[in-house]
C-alpha cells in the first residue's frame, strides 16, 4: 500500500494539469455536500452550549384533532412542574418583541445611556427557574430570584444577552443595577448571561425578563388576551425541562401523560391534550419525520452534484488510462494480477479524491464564512437581529469525518469503472502500440459515452428542479391576494406606562386616527384587530341558521374585526351586497361581510345575502351570536400568500370593542404616493399627541416580502446547485470531446487530406455531441419528474410537471452542451493534414 501511495503521488506530480482539474472537480462536488452537512450539523447534530445537554427535553402534545401543539397554558405548566417527579426542573418561556428606547431627557444617571432612535428587539419571557433548569452561568450579576416570578408586574428586572450587552451597551462593566427602557417602561438590569449562553433556540434572545412581566410588555391585546394566569385554554408558553439523573425520556414521558390524563379528567369542557411527548432539546432541531421532507430533496440534489463530479473524473481517468495502456499491458505480461492493477488504479483515484476533499474543506469554510452574512442580510429582518442568529458553522471532527468519508466514496466511485476497464486491455495490440484502447476504438467507447450521458441526465434533473422552484417563486410573487397593499402601512400604538390603561390607550388611538386622516397624502384609514398577511387569523366555530351539522365535524371560519373603511383601505372589492355603515359599526350592529368562497361553502344553492350565521367570537363574550350577511367580497389570501381563505367573515368594529381595547389595536393607512413620507409624519403626530405613546410602523408589503423569503431561498439554492451541476457537466463534455479530437487527429488529417471541408469535420463532432446531449436530456426528463415529486409539497399553483420549466431547461442544457462541443470541433477542423499524418 505504501508503494502504491508513493507511485500514485509521483504520477500525479508528473501530470499537474490533469491533477489540478481532477482535484478541483472533486472539490466542488465534495464541497457542496460538506457545506450542506455543516449547516445540517449546526441545526440538528451539534450540541447546544449547555451543561449536560443530553438531559434537556422539549415538551409537546397532541390535541383532540391530532395536531401537534408546542404551547401550554400557564395553569397547565404549574401542574406539570409541581406534579412530576421524573424531571429535575421544568421551565416555561415564550418570545416577546419590544422597543428599546433612547435615554429620555431629564432621566437620572442610573439609566443606562443609549444613543440613536428606538430599536426593535426580541427577547424571551421566562419562568423564574429558567436559568436554573438550563444550569446557565452569568458573566455579570445574577439570574432571577424566586420572588420575581410570583406576582404579575411586580418585579421589572431583566437579564441581558452577552452579545447584546457588548453591542448595545459597549460592554459596560457597571451595567448591573442600571435601568433600560423596554416599551417605555424601566427595567432594572440584574444580570448579563455568560458569553456562550443563548438558550435553546438559534435566534438567540437579546434579553430575558420574568414571565410575570408579561402584561407590562404585551397587555390584553397580545398573543393571548385571555386570562392567561388561570385559563387552561390560554396556551401561551413553550416548556423545556431537564431529566433527573438515571431517568429516561420514555419514563418521564409516561409520567407526563398520566398528569395530562388527570388534567383532562378535572375539566370536561376543555379540549384535552393527549399524547404528551418529550423530545431531545440538545440541538436546535430534532431529526424527525416532519424535517425529512425539507432535508431529503437537498441531500438528493447535492448528492447528484457529487455524482456528476465523479462521472467527470471517471472520464478523465479513462482518458489517462488510455495513455497508460502499454504500461498496464507490460505489468500484466510480467505477471501482475488484475486485482493488483485495480488496487493500484483505485489508490490513485482515492488519493485524488482525498486531495479534493482537503480542498473542499477549505472551500466550504471560506464559502460559508462569506455567504452566511450575505444570506442573513437578505432576510427581511433588521441587521442586528440577523447578527443575533447563533449558528455555529465552524468545522469540527464530525465535519472532517464526513468530508473524509465522502472523499473515499467519491474516489472509489470515480475510479472503479476506469480501473476495471483498464485492467483488461488487448495485450497484443497494446504491446504493439496500435493506438487502440482496451481493445476497442476510442470513438466507440460505450463507457465513456455512458458517463457523459449520466452527467447530462443528472444535470437536467437538477436544472428541472431549479426551474420548478424559480417558476414557483415567480408564481408566488404574482399571486393575487385579493388585497391591494401597495402604499399601505400598519400603525400599532401602545401606551408605555407602568399600569396598563386600555380605555386611555383606545382614546389616544382614536385621536391618532383622527390626526392621521387629516395628513396630506392619506387616502383612507381603517382600524382592524389583525393586520392582513401576518399569518392565518384565528378561527371560530360557525352555526348556520336553520341548518344542522354533525357534532364530529363542526364548521369553522377565519374572522377579522374591522372598521367600515377597511375594504376601501386594502382595496377589497365587494362583488354583491354592501359593506358596513358608520352607524352600524358605532352601534355594534349584528351584521357581517363574507367572501365568495364562504358563500359557496355555506350556501352553495341559495343566495348568501340575508342569511344569518352564528359566530362564537371571544372578543364579544358571546356564544353563537347571530350575524346577518349583508355583503360578499372577492376571495382573498389574507393570512399566508400560498393559502386561500377557505371561509372568512368580517365583523364590524363597534365603539364598545374599540374603547375596551379588546379589538382594533392596529391602524391601516393607505398613502396616495410616498408612503415613507406619510410614515414619518405619522410618527411625528404620535409623539406630539403623547410622549408615552409608542408606535410601530410597518408596510404591509413587508409582510409579503417576509413570506416570500423561504421561496426565494429555495430558488436561489436550487439555482446555485443546478448551475454548479451544469458547469461540471459542460466541463466533462468538453473534456471528453477534446480527448476524442486528440485521439482521432490522424483520422481527421486523412479526412482533410482527402478533401473533407472544415464544416464537415465540425458537423461530424457536433452530431456526436448532439446524440449524447439528446440521450442525456431524455433520461434527465425522467429523473426530473422524480425530483418534481419531492418538491410537490412546496410548489404553489405550479404543476410538478410544468412543461415550461422542463422545456426551458432542456433547451438550455442542449445549447450549453453544443457550445461545449463546438470549441474542440472547431479545433479539429483546423488540423494541418501534414502534421496529422506524421502524428504517430
Descriptive report:
With 840 residues, the chain is α+β, with helices and mostly antiparallel strands. It contains 25 helices and 22 strands. α2 runs antiparallel to α8, α3 crosses α7 and α14 packs antiparallel against α21. It is globular and about 105 Å long. About 3% of the residues have low confidence.
Question: Could you write a compact summary of the structure shown?
Answer:
With 840 residues, this protein is an alpha+beta fold. It is globular, with a radius of gyration of 34 Å.
Q: Please count the beta strands (DSSP E, at least 2 residues each).
A: 22
Average pLDDT, all residues? 83
Low confidence ranges: 103-117, 435-444
Query: Span between N and C termini?
Result: 36 Å
Oligomer: single chain
Number of helices: 25
- Into which percentage range does the β-strand content fall? 15-25%
- Overall SS class: alpha+beta
Q: What share of the residues lie within helices? A: 40-55%
> What can be said about the biggest beta sheet?
11 strands, mixed
Radius of gyration: 34 Å
Shape: globular
Amino acid at each position: 500500500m505504501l508503494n502504491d501511495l508513493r507511485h500514485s503521488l509521483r504520477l500525479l506530480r508528473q501530470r499537474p494539469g490533469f491533477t489540478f482539474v481532477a482535484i478541483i472537480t472533486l472539490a466542488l462536488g465534495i464541497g457542496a455536500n460538506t457545506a450542506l452537512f455543516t449547516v445540517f450539523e449546526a441545526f440538528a447534530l451539534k450540541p447546544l452550549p449547555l451543561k449536560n445537554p443530553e438531559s434537556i427535553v422539549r415538551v409537546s402534545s397532541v390535541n383532540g384533532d391530532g395536531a401537534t401543539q408546542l404551547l401550554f397554558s400557564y395553569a397547565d405548566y404549574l401542574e406539570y412542574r409541581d406534579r412530576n417527579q421524573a424531571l429535575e426542573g421544568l421551565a416555561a418561556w415564550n418570545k416577546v418583541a419590544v422597543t428599546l428606547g433612547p435615554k429620555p431627557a431629564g432621566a437620572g444617571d442610573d439609566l443606562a445611556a443609549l444613543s440613536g432612535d428606538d430599536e426593535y428587539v426580541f427577547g424571551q419571557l421566562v419562568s423564574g427557574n429558567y436559568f436554573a433548569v438550563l444550569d446557565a452561568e452569568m458573566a455579570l450579576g445574577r439570574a432571577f430570584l424566586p420572588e420575581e416570578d410570583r406576582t404579575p408586574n411586580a418585579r421589572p428586572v431583566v437579564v441581558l444577552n452577552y452579545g447584546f450587552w457588548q453591542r448595545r451597551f459597549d460592554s459596560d462593566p457597571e451595567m448591573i443595577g442600571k435601568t433600560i427602557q423596554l416599551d417605555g417602561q424601566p427595567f432594572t438590569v440584574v444580570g448579563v448571561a455568560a458569553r456562550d449562553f443563548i438558550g435553546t433556540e438559534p435566534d438567540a434572545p437579546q434579553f430575558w425578563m420574568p414571565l410575570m412581566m408579561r402584561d407590562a410588555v404585551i397587555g390584553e391585546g397580545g398573543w393571548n388576551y385571555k386570562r392567561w394566569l388561570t385559563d387552561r385554554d390560554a396556551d401561551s408558553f413553550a416548556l423545556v425541562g431537564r431529566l433527573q439523573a438515571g431517568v429516561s425520556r420514555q419514563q418521564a414521558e409516561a409520567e407526563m401523560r398520566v398528569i395530562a390524563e388527570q388534567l383532562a379528567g378535572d375539566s370536561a369542557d376543555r379540549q384535552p391534550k393527549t399524547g404528551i411527548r418529550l423530545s431531545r432539546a440538545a440541538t436546535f432541531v430534532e431529526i424527525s419525520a416532519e424535517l425529512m421532507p425539507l432535508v431529503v430533496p437537498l441531500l438528493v440534489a447535492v448528492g447528484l452534484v457529487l455524482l456528476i463530479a465523479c462521472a467527470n473524473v471517471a472520464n478523465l481517468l479513462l482518458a489517462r488510462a488510455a495513455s497508460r495502456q502499454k504500461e498496464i499491458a507490460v505489468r500484466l505480461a510480467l505477471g501482475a494480477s488484475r486485482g493488483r492493477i485495480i488496487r493500484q488504479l483505485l489508490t490513485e483515484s482515492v488519493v485524488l479524491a482525498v486531495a479534493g476533499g482537503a480542498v473542499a474543506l477549505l472551500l466550504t469554510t471560506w464559502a460559508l464564512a462569506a455567504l452566511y452574512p450575505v444570506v442573513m442580510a437578505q432576510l427581511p429582518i433588521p441587521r442586528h437581529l440577523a447578527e443575533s442568529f447563533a449558528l455555529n458553522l465552524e468545522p469540527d471532527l464530525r465535519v472532517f469525518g464526513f468530508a473524509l468519508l465522502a472523499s473515499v466514496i467519491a474516489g472509489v466511485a470515480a475510479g472503479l469503472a476506469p480501473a476495471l476497464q483498464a485492467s483488461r486491455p488487448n495485450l497484443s495490440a497494446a504491446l504493439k502500440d496500435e493506438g487502440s484502447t482496451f481493445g476497442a476504438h476510442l470513438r466507440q467507447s460505450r463507457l465513456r459515452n455512458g458517463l457523459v450521458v449520466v452527467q447530462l441526465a443528472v444535470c437536467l434533473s437538477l436544472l428541472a428542479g431549479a426551474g420548478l422552484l424559480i417558476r414557483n417563486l415567480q408564481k408566488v410573487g404574482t399571486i393575487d391576494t385579493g388585497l391591494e397593499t401597495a402604499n399601505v402601512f400598519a400603525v400599532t400604538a401602545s401606551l408605555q406606562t407602568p399600569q396598563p390603561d386600555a380605555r386611555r390607550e383606545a382614546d389616544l388611538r382614536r385621536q391618532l386616527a383622527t390626526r392621521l386622516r387629516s395628513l396630506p397624502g392619506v387616502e383612507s384609514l381603517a382600524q382592524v384587530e389583525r393586520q392582513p398577511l401576518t399569518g392565518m387569523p384565528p378561527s371560530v366555530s360557525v352555526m348556520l341558521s336553520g341548518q344542522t351539522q354533525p357534532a364530529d365535524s363542526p364548521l369553522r371560519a377565519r374572522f377579522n374585526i374591522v372598521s367600515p373603511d377597511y375594504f376601501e383601505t386594502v382595496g377589497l372589492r365587494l362583488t354583491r351586497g354592501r359593506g358596513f355603515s358608520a352607524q352600524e359599526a358605532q352601534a355594534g350592529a349584528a351584521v357581517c361581510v363574507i367572501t365568495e368562497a364562504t358563500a359557496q361553502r355555506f350556501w352553495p344553492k341559495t343566495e348568501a345575502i340575508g342569511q344569518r350565521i352564528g359566530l362564537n367570537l371571544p372578543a364579544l363574550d358571546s356564544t353563537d351570536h347571530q350575524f346577518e350577511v349583508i355583503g360578499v367580497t372577492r376571495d382573498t389570501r389574507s393570512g399566508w400568500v400560498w393559502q386561500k381563505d377557505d371561509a372568512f367573515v368580517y365583523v364590524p368594529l363597534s365603539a364598545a370593542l374599540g374603547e375596551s381595547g379588546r379589538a382594533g389595536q392596529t391602524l391601516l393607512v393607505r398613502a396616495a404616493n410616498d408612503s415613507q413620507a406619510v410614515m414619518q409624519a405619522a410618527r411625528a403626530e404620535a409623539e406630539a399627541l403623547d410622549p408615552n405613546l409608542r408606535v410601530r410602523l410597518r408596510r404591509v408589503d413587508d409582510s409579503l416580502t417576509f413570506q416570500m423569503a423561504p421561496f426565494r431561498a429555495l430558488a436561489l439554492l436550487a439555482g446555485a446547485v443546478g448551475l454548479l451541476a451544469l458547469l461540471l457537466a459542460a466541463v466533462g463534455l468538453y473534456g471528453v470531446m477534446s480527448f476524442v479530437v486528440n485521439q482521432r487527429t490522424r483520422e481527421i488529417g486523412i479526412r482533410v487530406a482527402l478533401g473533407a471541408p472544415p464544416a464537415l469535420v465540425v458537423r461530424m463532432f457536433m452530431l456526436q455531441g448532439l446524440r449524447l446531449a439528446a440521450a442525456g436530456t431524455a433520461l434527465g426528463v425522467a429523473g426530473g419528474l422524480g425530483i418534481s415529486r419531492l418538491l410537490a409539497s412546496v410548489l404553489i399553483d405550479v404543476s410538478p410537471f410544468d412543461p415550461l420549466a422542463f422545456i426551458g431547461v432542456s433547451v438550455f442544457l442542449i445549447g450549453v452542451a453544443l457550445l461545449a462541443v463546438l470549441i474542440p470541433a472547431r479545433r479539429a477542423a483546423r488540423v494541418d493534414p501534414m502534421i496529422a499524418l506524421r502524428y504517430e
